[in-house]
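tool=predict chain=A
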Amino acid sequence: MSSTKIMKNIEASKVLNLSELVDYAPGQVVSKTIAQIPTVSITLFALDKGEGISTHTTAGDAMVQILDGEAEITIGDEVFNLKAGETIIMPYGIPHGLEARERFKMLLTVVKD
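tool=predict ok
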C-alpha cells in the first residue's frame, strides 16, 4: 500500500456534512477534489442557478449524489430531475450533462475499469 495520501481536502476521523465542504458562488461552478487516482475520482460540486456542465462522456461510470437543491441531468435522450437525497448513475460511453434549475450541490464519483 502506498504511503501517499489518497483523500485530500477533507478531514479524516471526523464526522462531516459533505454539503458544508463546498460553497456556492454567484454565477459559478465550484468544485473541490476529494480523491483522484487512475481508477476513481471523487469531487464535490456547488452550481449556482443557471450554471451547468455541458454534455460530455466520461472514461467510467459516474454516480451523482445530490446533497442540496435540485438538478436537471440529461443522459442520452432522457432528462431526469433530481433533488437532495437522490442519486443517479451516468453510464460510461453515454453522453450526459447537467444544469442547475435551482442551485445545487453534488458529490460526483467516477469509477473507471
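Residues 26 and 48 are 6 Å apart (CA to CA). Residues 18-112 form a domain with the Jelly Rolls fold (CATH 2.60.120.10).
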